[in-house]
C-alpha cells in the first residue's frame, strides 16, 4: 500500500505543459491549463501505463507522457483538486488555514509558509529559497530563489472566463442550451473535500450554478474566452509522474549535463521491457487524436521504422554502461554515445559518471576518449547514425 496515495498522479490534478512538451499548441499555448481526466493502465493499447489523458480548458483532449519512456510532457500546477491539504499549516500571507494544494516553506525564515497562489504571486522575499511539499506527507524538494526566474501567465477557466458546456456536462439545459455562454464568477472548493475544483457560472438568464473543473476528475465546462489565472514558475513545479527522489535532483539543476560529460544510464531492463510493451499500442490512438506517432525520443535507439523503436537487442547494452554526451538538444534531451551506438536520453535517466564509482572502464578506453575529446567538442550535426531522427523532427501537432 502506498503510504502517500496523494503523491501519485490522480485524475482531477491541474496541469500545464512541461519539460518534454513537443505538441505544439494543443494546450492553447504555454500557460494554458488542463485537467487530468484519465490515467494510463498497464496493458492498455490506447493509454499505456505512465501516460495520462488531459482535458485542456480550451477544449482539446488527448494523451501525454507522465513518465512514459522517461519523458514528462506535463507539470503539476495544482493538486488541491484531489483533496491535498496541510491541516495544521497556515499561509502566512493570505492567512488561509489548512493550506490546500502544494505547500511552499521558506528556508530562511522560521516557520514561514505560503500557498501556491501566494508563492506564484511573488509574496515574501524573492531572494529567499523555499522548500516545496507536494503533499502533507511528501519529502521537501529544495528550490532556488524565485528572483530572476521565468514566470509564465496562466490562462483558462478562472474567474472572469467565458465558458460553454464541456465534455462531462450532465446538467440538462441549465446553460440555456448547447453552446450558450456563461461567465465564471468564482473558483472554489467542493465542501471540505476538494479545493479550487469547481466553478460558479452565471448564465444568460441570470441563474448561477456550480460546475466541476477537476472535482472527481470531471470537467463540465469548456473555455471560449479564457481568463488570466495568475502565474507560475515553470522551474518550480513538479514534473507530472516523476518520483520524488529524482525530482530533488532535477529541480535543483534542470540541465545537469553538458557536451562531453560522461554519463551512466539509470534504467533497468524491466523498465525497458515495459516501455517496449507499451510502445506498440501507442500509435493508433496518437493518429486518432492528431498526434501522428509518438516518437519516443527518450530513450530511442535509432529507429529505422516506428515499429522498430526500442529494438530490444541493442537496448540493454546501453543500460548501466558509461557513455559520453555528444549533443544537448534544445528540449533538454541528450544524445549519448554508448556501446558503439548513439542514443537519445532524457537527462532524468542519466547520472554523471565518476570513475571511482566504476572501475570497469579500462584505461585504454579512457585514453582513447581523451584523445577524441577535442574532435567531439565541435558541434555534432544530424549525422549521428543511419536512421537517426533528432527530437526536432518529431511530429508537431497543430
Ligand atoms: Zn496564500
Ligand atoms: Zn523568508
TrEMBL record:
<keyword id="KW-0808">Transferase</keyword>
<keyword id="KW-0863">Zinc-finger</keyword>
<keyword id="KW-0963">Cytoplasm</keyword>
<comment type="pathway">
    <text>Protein modification; protein ubiquitination.</text>
</comment>
<dbReference type="InterPro" id="IPR043145">
    <property type="entry name" value="Znf_ZZ_sf"/>
</dbReference>
<dbReference type="Pfam" id="PF18346">
    <property type="entry name" value="SH3_15"/>
</dbReference>
<feature type="region of interest" description="Disordered">
    <location>
        <begin position="366"/>
        <end position="398"/>
    </location>
</feature>
<keyword id="KW-0479">Metal-binding</keyword>
<dbReference type="GO" id="GO:0004842">
    <property type="term" value="F:ubiquitin-protein transferase activity"/>
</dbReference>
<keyword id="KW-0833">Ubl conjugation pathway</keyword>
<dbReference type="InterPro" id="IPR037252">
    <property type="entry name" value="Mib_Herc2_sf"/>
</dbReference>
<feature type="domain" description="ZZ-type">
    <location>
        <begin position="86"/>
        <end position="138"/>
    </location>
</feature>
<dbReference type="InterPro" id="IPR000433">
    <property type="entry name" value="Znf_ZZ"/>
</dbReference>
<dbReference type="Pfam" id="PF06701">
    <property type="entry name" value="MIB_HERC2"/>
</dbReference>
<keyword id="KW-0862">Zinc</keyword>
<feature type="domain" description="MIB/HERC2">
    <location>
        <begin position="1"/>
        <end position="80"/>
    </location>
</feature>
<dbReference type="GO" id="GO:0008270">
    <property type="term" value="F:zinc ion binding"/>
</dbReference>
<protein>
    <recommendedName>
        <fullName>MIB2</fullName>
    </recommendedName>
</protein>
<dbReference type="InterPro" id="IPR010606">
    <property type="entry name" value="Mib_Herc2"/>
</dbReference>
<keyword id="KW-0677">Repeat</keyword>
<dbReference type="InterPro" id="IPR040847">
    <property type="entry name" value="SH3_15"/>
</dbReference>
<dbReference type="GO" id="GO:0005737">
    <property type="term" value="C:cytoplasm"/>
</dbReference>
<feature type="domain" description="MIB/HERC2">
    <location>
        <begin position="149"/>
        <end position="227"/>
    </location>
</feature>
<dbReference type="GO" id="GO:0016567">
    <property type="term" value="P:protein ubiquitination"/>
</dbReference>
<dbReference type="InterPro" id="IPR042056">
    <property type="entry name" value="MIB1/2_ZZ"/>
</dbReference>
<dbReference type="Pfam" id="PF00569">
    <property type="entry name" value="ZZ"/>
</dbReference>
Amino acid at each position: 500500500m502506498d503510504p502517500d496515495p496523494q503523491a501519485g498522479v490522480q485524475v482531477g490534478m491541474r496541469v500545464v505543459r512541461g519539460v518534454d512538451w513537443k505538441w505544439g499548441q494543443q494546450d492553447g499555448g504555454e500557460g494554458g491549463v488542463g485537467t487530468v481526466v484519465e490515467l494510463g493502465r498497464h496493458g492498455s493499447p490506447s493509454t499505456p501505463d505512465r501516460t495520462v489523458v488531459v482535458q485542456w480548458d480550451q477544449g482539446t483532449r488527448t494523451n501525454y507522457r507522465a513518465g512514459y519512456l522517461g519523458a514528462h510532457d506535463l507539470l503539476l500546477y495544482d493538486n488541491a483538486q484531489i483533496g491535498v491539504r496541510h491541516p495544521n499549516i497556515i499561509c502566512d500571507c493570505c492567512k488561509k488555514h489548512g493550506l490546500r494544494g502544494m505547500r511552499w516553506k521558506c528556508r530562511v525564515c522560521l516557520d514561514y509558509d505560503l500557498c501556491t497562489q501566494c508563492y506564484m504571486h511573488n509574496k515574501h522575499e524573492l531572494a529567499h529559497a523555499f522548500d516545496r511539499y507536494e503533499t502533507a506527507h511528501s519529502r521537501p524538494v529544495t528550490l532556488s530563489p524565485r528572483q530572476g526566474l521565468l514566470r509564465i501567465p496562466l490562462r483558462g477557466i478562472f474567474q472572469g472566463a467565458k465558458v460553454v458546456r464541456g465534455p462531462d456536462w450532465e446538467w440538462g439545459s441549465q446553460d440555456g442550451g448547447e453552446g450558450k455562454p456563461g461567465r465564471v464568477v468564482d473558483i472554489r472548493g467542493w465542501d471540505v473535500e476538494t479545493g479550487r475544483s469547481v466553478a460558479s457560472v452565471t448564465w444568460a438568464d441570470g441563474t448561477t450554478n456550480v460546475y466541476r473543473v477537476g472535482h472527481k476528475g470531471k470537467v463540465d465546462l469548456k473555455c471560449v474566452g479564457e481568463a488570466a489565472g495568475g502565474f507560475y514558475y515553470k522551474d518550480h513545479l513538479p514534473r507530472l509522474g516523476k518520483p520524488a527522489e529524482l525530482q530533488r535532483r532535477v529541480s535543483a539543476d534542470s540541465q545537469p549535463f553538458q557536451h562531453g560529460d560522461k554519463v551512466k544510464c539509470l534504467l533497468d531492463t524491466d523498465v525497458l521491457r515495459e516501455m517496449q510493451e507499451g510502445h506498440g499500442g501507442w500509435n493508433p490512438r496518437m493518429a486518432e487524436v492528431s498526434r501522428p506517432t509518438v516518437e519516443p525520443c527518450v530513450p530511442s535507439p535509432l529507429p529505422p521504422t516506428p515499429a522498430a523503436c526500442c529494438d530490444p537487442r541493442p537496448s540493454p547494452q546501453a543500460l548501466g554502461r558509461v557513455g559520453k554526451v555528444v549533443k544537448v538538444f534544445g528540449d533538454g534531451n541528450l544524445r549519448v554515445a554508448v556501446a558503439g551506438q548513439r542514443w537519445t536520453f532524457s537527462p532524468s535517466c542519466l547520472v554523471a559518471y565518476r570513475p571511482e564509482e566504476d572501475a570497469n572502464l579500462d584505461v585504454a578506453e579512457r585514453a582513447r576518449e581523451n584523445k577524441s575529446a577535442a574532435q567531439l567538442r565541435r558541434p555534432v550535426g544530424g549525422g549521428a547514425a543511419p536512421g537517426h531522427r533528432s527530437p526536432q523532427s518529431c511530429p508537431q501537432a497543430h
